[in-house]
């Protein structure tokens, strides 16, 4: 499980503002607009209780504070409990939390105590990054490349299939690539084969590796929508092809979770 580091979360507010600017440029809507339109929900005055969790690798220094900043950015009233774990959960409910946000090393959830809805960060992240990519206003075809079919990537790739895109897919795990392409009915596209030089204007990447997108398949002004950490392409390639990069460590996925449980 690839865990966030405090470095990933530095200046979370400016990372979120930059990502929102890119989303608006690519789709014509901001992150709020995409979530509202996709989930058909609008925040009321739901109070969000953020509960630090000490299990496993323990508390990530700025994780809860980052969630507090993210919830505020999207217009939610939120607070971080003083206590962690079970005591923190009790404190959150006693202080009027309607939505609980908390994460251990395997699951980051949003749970709406009023309507019972619950969301998992991994599918919510894959789906919203795929949704943003699918709304690229200047896409030159319905062809998209999806890279990485794990807990985040598979739901995102499935979403692109569901939206009627012609999905080409790659995963470094050959068995998973074979299983996923037959299960989703998508075309395997082996990025490790230099002869594969088809260019894409929409790329969705969800891997824990850097530089997973080779130069041969990048088209001018393409969109690379990637929750994957670290980044899927170098800054040099991003500049050379004027790539529209949608990449942010936590906020877009958290917004997707919150809007999905309203
Ligand atoms: P996972 O381990 O379940 O899946 C990763 C997949 O990528 C695996 O199938 C693996 O075979 C594949 N892969 C690894 N290296 C590759 C390469 N060089 N080329 C092609 N495929 C490769 O991981 P998960 O949970 O799906 O997370 C993926 C990434 O997304 C991680 O970096 C994680 O930290 C990040 N993440 C980001 C969030 C955000 O809001 N930005 C939220 C949640 C996760
Ligand atoms: O500070 C805390 O409460 C920790 N228990 C939080 C652990 C989060 C672990 N998960 C992750 O780092 C990744 C994130 C990208 C979001 C989902 N998983
Ligand atoms: Mg995100």
How far apart, in Å, are the first and last alpha carbons? 28 Å
Class derived from helix and strand content: alpha/beta
Order of helices and strands: HHEHEHEEEHEHEHEEEHEH
Strand content: 15-25%
- Oligomer category: single chain
SSE topology:
Elements (H helix, E strand, L loop, with lengths): L11 H16 L3 H9 L7 E4 L12 H11 L3 E4 L4 H10 L4 E5 L4 E5 L5 E3 H14 L8 E5 L5 H10 L3 E5 L3 H11 L2 E2 L11 E6 L12 E8 L9 H6 L3 E3 L4 H10 L2
Parallel strand pairs: 1-2, 1-3, 6-7, 6-9, 7-8, 9-10, 10-11
Antiparallel strand pairs: 3-4, 4-5
The structure holds 1,4-dihydronicotinamide adenine dinucleotide, ligand 2YC and magnesium ion.
For this entry, give a set of tags.
262 residues, alpha/beta, six-stranded parallel β-sheet, five-stranded mixed β-sheet, 9 helices, 11 strands, binds 1,4-dihydronicotinamide adenine dinucleotide, binds ligand 2YC, binds magnesium ion
Short description:
The chain has 262 residues and is an alpha/beta fold. Helix content is 37%, strand content 19%.
Can you describe what's shown?
The strands form 2 sheets. The chain has a 6-stranded parallel β-sheet. The mean pLDDT is 97. The two termini are 28 Å apart. It has helices spanning 12-27, 31-39, 63-73, 85-94, 121-134, 153-162, 174-184, 235-240, 251-260; strands spanning 47-50, 77-80, 99-103, 108-112, 118-120, 143-147, 166-170, 187-188, 200-205, 218-225, 244-246. α2 (31-39) runs parallel beside α9. It is of the alpha/beta class and 262 residues long. Bound molecules: 1,4-dihydronicotinamide adenine dinucleotide, ligand 2YC and magnesium ion (MG). 1,4-dihydronicotinamide adenine dinucleotide binds at residues 2, 121-122, 125, 147-153, 170-173, 176, 206-209, 212, 227-229, 248-250, 252-253.
């Amino acid at each position: 499980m690839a865990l966030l580091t405090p470095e990933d979360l530095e200046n979370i507010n400016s990372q979120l503002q930059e990502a929102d600017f890119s989303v608006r440029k690519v789709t014509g809507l901001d992150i709020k607009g995409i979530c509202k339109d996709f989930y058909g929900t609008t925040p009321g005055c739901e109070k969000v209780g953020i509960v630090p969790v000490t299990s496993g690798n323990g508390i990530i220094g700025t994780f809860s504070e980052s969630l507090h900043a993210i919830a505020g950015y999207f217009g939610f009233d939120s607070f971080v409990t003083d206590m962690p774990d079970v005591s923190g959960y009790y404190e959150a409910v006693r202080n009027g939390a309607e939505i609980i946000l908390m994460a251990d090393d395997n699951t980051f959830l949003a749970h709406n105590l009023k309507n019972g809805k619950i969301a998992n960060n991994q599918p919510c992240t894959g789906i919203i990054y795929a949704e943003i990519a699918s709304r690229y206003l200047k896409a030159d075809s319905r062809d998209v490349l999806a890279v990485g079919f794990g807990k985040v990537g598979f739901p995102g790739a499935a979403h692109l299939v569901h939206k009627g895109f012609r999905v080409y897919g790659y995963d470094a795990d050959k068995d998973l690539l074979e299983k996923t392409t037959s299960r989703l009915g998508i075309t395997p596209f082996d990025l490790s084969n230099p002869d594969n030089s088809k260019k894409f204007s929409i790329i969705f990447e969800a891997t824990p590796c850097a530089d997973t997108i080779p130069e041969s398949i990048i088209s001018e002004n393409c969109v690379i929508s990637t929750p994957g950490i670290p980044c899927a392409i170098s800054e040099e390639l991003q500049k050379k092809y004027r790539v529209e990069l949608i990449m942010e460590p936590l906020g877009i996925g958290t917004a997707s979770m919150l809007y999905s449980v309203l």
